[in-house]
């Protein structure tokens, strides 16, 4: 969870709650972006060690963190810290952003985070809540490997402000106004991840692992997929015509990309991933 206040220089003061894998990863990313970052940890060992060495002794241990981050804790930040250091706006129309990255459903009530915030803090605060979700292994983001995540809030404005905080090129944010959908997808995918792990653990192969999730997951995640293999070999620097000649099989995604490109253009919709596959194929064909 991140709490932030924009500064006149465009950078923000950010308080990250949690110094585990993902809290540390987000703190590092925000520190890279020159925000003034405070990372709260409930582990005293993390606070002391981090402020001496810019390393987290428990999570992402190999990573050296930017010097723009200060660890705070183990006591929760108090009112004086909030008021004197972060200086949030108390104007209900201009509340600081509250960004959530947790994925889950409250046991007993079945409530999602947004519902809990609305119930406990009121609808005005819930409007300032933004959710970030998507493929985001902390260990990969912290090494600046590219990923794309969804940033959603009840208002487009809040989502846009939150996305602007994460402006490193490897961390692409797509904004929207469906925080419930984002929350539910993030919570539910974990149940299927357990099922998928079970299928692997039982010794089943890819078809079984993808059952219930579908062909998209299957074809995107296995070197048994011809289309995945084409993409992998392109990523490794091979030429498309060489790949197609040596694949020994069809990869229907290659011609389909052309059709998809036409549909995207006709509908005038944003489809950045399909567009970039198409651009790559056109470049190769020249
Ligand atoms: N790791 C990822 O790649 C990743 C990516 C996206 C989202 N997330 C989400 O971020 C959240 C945290 O994941 P993580 O990977 O950082 O977990 P983690 O286990 O690495 O770290 C969790 C941190 O929270 C602290 N903590 C646990 N219970 C607490 C409590 N009751 N009060 C205060 N602090 C508590 C722990 O001490 C630890 O520092 C999860 O909801 C997860 O779904 C994680
Ligand atoms: O390691 P997991 O299964 O908690 O997944 C972490 C993130 O949610 C991946 O996006």
Layout of SSEs?
Elements: E1 2-6, E2 12-17, H1 21-32, E3 36-40, H2 44-53, E4 69-72, H3 79-86, E5 97-100, H4 113-121, H5 123-127, E6 129-133, H6 138-141, E7 147-153, H7 156-165, E8 171-176, H8 179-201, H9 206-210, H10 215-220, H11 226-235, H12 240-246, H13 253-267, H14 272-285
Parallel strand pairs: 2-3, 3-4, 5-6, 7-8
Antiparallel strand pairs: 1-2, 1-5, 6-7
Residues 103, 135-137, 190, 193 line the site of SN-glycerol-3-phosphate (G3P).
Unreliable residue stretches: none
- Which secondary-structure class do the elements indicate? alpha/beta
The overall pLDDT average reads 89
Helix amount? 40-55%
Gross morphology is globular
Oligomer: single chain
Strand order in space, largest sheet? 4-3-2-1-5-6-7-8
The biggest beta sheet is recorded as: 8 strands, mixed
Which fold does the CATH topology of the largest domain refer to? Rossmann fold
Number of domains: 2
Q: Look at the structure and name the CATH superfamily of the largest domain.
A: NAD(P)-binding Rossmann-like Domain
Family: Belongs to the NAD-dependent glycerol-3-phosphate dehydrogenase family.
Catalytic activity: sn-glycerol 3-phosphate + NAD(+) = dihydroxyacetone phosphate + NADH + H(+)
Pfam families: NAD_Gly3P_dh_C, NAD_Gly3P_dh_N
Organism: Agrocybe chaxingu
What does this structure look like?
- Its EC number is 1.1.1.8.
- This is Glycerol-3-phosphate dehydrogenase [NAD(+)].
- This protein has 286 residues and is an alpha/beta fold.
- The chain has helices at 21-32, 44-53, 79-86, 113-121, 123-127, 138-141, 156-165, 179-201, 206-210, 215-220, 226-235, 240-246, 253-267, 272-285, and strands at 2-6, 12-17, 36-40, 69-72, 97-100, 129-133, 147-153, 171-176.
- Strands 4-3-2-1-5-6-7-8 form an eight-stranded mixed sheet, sandwiched between helices.
- Helix 13 packs across helix 14 (272-285).
- It folds into two domains: 2-178, NAD(P)-binding Rossmann-like Domain (Rossmann fold); 242-286, no CATH class.
- The chain is 48% helix and 15% strand.
- Helix 1 (21-32) links the parallel strand 2 and strand 3.
- The protein has 14 helices and eight strands.
- Bound molecules: nicotinamide-adenine-dinucleotide and SN-glycerol-3-phosphate (G3P).
